[in-house]
Amino acid sequence: MTRRGFTLVELLVTMAVMGILGGALVRLTINQSRYVGEQEALMEARQTSRQAMNLLATELRMVSDSGVVRVAFDSITVRVPYAFGMLCGVSGGARIASVLPYDSAAWDNAVSPGVAWRTGGGFRPAGSVTVAASAATSACTSDSIRVVTGGALIALSPSSVLSSANAGGLMYLYETVTYRFATSGVLPGRRALYRVSGGTAEELLAPFASTAGFAYLTGSRLTLTTTVPSNLNTVTGFELRLIAESSVTPSGRTAPITYDLRPRVRLGNKPLD
Amino acid sequence: MRDDRGFAIPMVVLLVALITVMLTSGFVRVRADRQVAEGQEVSSEALSVARSGLHLFLEAQATRPADGIVDTMYVTGGYAIVTATIVQNPADTMASQTWIVRSTGYVIDAGTGSVPRAQRTVAQFAEWQTGTIRVRAAWVAADGIQKPGGPPGPLPVTVDGFNQCGGSPTTAGLRAASVTGPSGKTIATSGSPNENLSEAGLADSSKIDWQSILDGGIKEDSPTPTIYPQYSDQSSITIVSGDYTTGTGILSGIYGSGLLIVTGRLRIRSWIIWSGVVLVGEDIDFEGGFIGSYIYGMLVSGLYSQVGNLGGARSNLTTSHTVQIRYNQCNIDAAMSGLTGFAPIDNAFVDNWATY
Fold first, then answer.
1. B86 touches chain A (CB under 8 A)
2. pLDDT band per the 50, 70, 90 thresholds, residue A88
3. A5, B65, B200, B342: least CB-packed within 10 angstroms?
């Protein structure tokens, strides 16, 4: 049996073809890898933006009159309601209130609570109070006020902060919260979104671009402005500039991928007039 | 024959497998991202369904529901379970009850069966308005009345407490906190009693919650009285915030029906013809003329004294033309019928609250 090998020409042609195919394959693989890397980075940034939007919008939507305390490009401080109810009379030096069922986690985590009561078509913050459970039902029943199923009776002291509020008026307990973009502790050199309550700062999400921040919606037309309004009571909402970044710079790029999400949130319990 | 055993097929298989793995990996990531986005969309839909269900429920209640009522409202994209509970039930049956109405919205996708894809609970404080008003007199002048000077004689003013449309009990003609001016100037009053011209606490005894009105507790159909409104709509509500002064021309009067509320001073420099209820925060001054002024229903002035000081303001009767204020229970009932039902309390909305 005659065994014939490859000729030199056959080998050269084969090597050339394999070289071309191999090169193309490597290029394809690299491009695909970069594309996947970029997409992953974009998804990560998008995820960060969306999570920030969900966290902020849920709390900001409940803010009412005089609920905006301070604003700057990189931070806002607001009074966030966490329990609604109705004011009753005074018992034992404390103002009694019947509150609706509340989120127990929000209740437990609330630091330095304040109380606001409804007057003139909107809510007015009355000041800090100490909140305790109460059994003084007569303070409410005398004004025909009930405790709804799952709700609670609470005592607010000192009662003097609510001296001008009538029994039967609506009220809510609030927590003063600051949302702030600042240097991240988790990702050094990057910016993070913090939630500050009662002097304790909690890093929520990172990383964000240096352009992430807040703009303001003012008046009944929700006019967008980046200038801090001289009268914070004119702020009727916020534009959240949630410009998030990927945590790593994808291969082939010189900077992290960014995702620019700018939802507008109206303060839902603030009159527009 | 040559034994040619190539490796093209293994290479192609390897290449295809590699690309498949990469594409699959990409698709899985994109799908996960899409699922997150869809989750957020569905959550927003649940909020929408909950809000729509709540408003449908509030609008659907023509008669007062039972305390703790649970109702299902079907809306596009799902349904909402709505529960309404009384929070404050005043002993005074004329006063409004305060309710908390909560709505849990469920998003349903026909393609995935009856299991809700998302749910969300919202709540709204609302008042149940009785649509009734306490009638203490054809004209309750809680601000007091100032009669004009001049020689003695009857003023062209008639205040009549006999029910024009019959059937209902007769009420008083005129109840005023005080009447000042020349004693020789007289107002023609009739009713049961004809008049009480020095009655204290009139604003409070009317049981009209003026603070609630100032707080926006009643929604108007029209922000200003006009000369020719839809006279046929006897349940329309017109609210003027602050003072209102008519022009002096013959075409500048107020002509209409229903409930007219002026939170400040109402100055009639021409005329008013109104069938229904007129509530004035400060004084109502009849100064003009042409065709006279006629209020068929009831008039209450000086209601601001419930919440503040009127500063000595009194309703004056300087007009030389006819003024007739006559009690008409039919017109009052028609005017108040527009207020029966739930009225959401402004800026008292609870979002994403604990499900209870």
1. yes
2. very high
3. A5
Q: How far is CA A233 from the centre of its chain?
A: 21
Q: Is B98 at the interface with chain A, CB within 8 A?
A: yes
pLDDT in tens, A263-272: 999 998 887 7
d(CA A129, CA A85): 15
CA-based nearest distance A270→chain B, Å: 6
Q: Global pTM?
A: 0.71
The pLDDT value given to residue B356: 40
CB of B27 within 8 Å of a chain A CB? The answer is no
A159 has a chain B CB within 8 A of its CB: no
Determine the distance in angstroms separating the CA of A26 from the nearest CA of chain B, rounded to an integer.
Answer: 11
What does the pLDDT read at residue B205? 85
CA distance B265 to B286: 11
What residues pair up with A59 in beta bridges, in sequence order?
A: none
* Facing residue for B29 by CB, picked from A40, A64, A65: A40
**What does the alpha-carbon distance between residue B164 and residue B158 come to, in Å, rounded to a whole number?**
14
Provide ipTM, 2 decimals: 0.78
For residue A25, give the nearest of B15, B87, B346 by CB distance: B15
Contact B241, B263 (CB under 8 A): yes
Q: What percent of chain B has pLDDT over 70?
A: 92
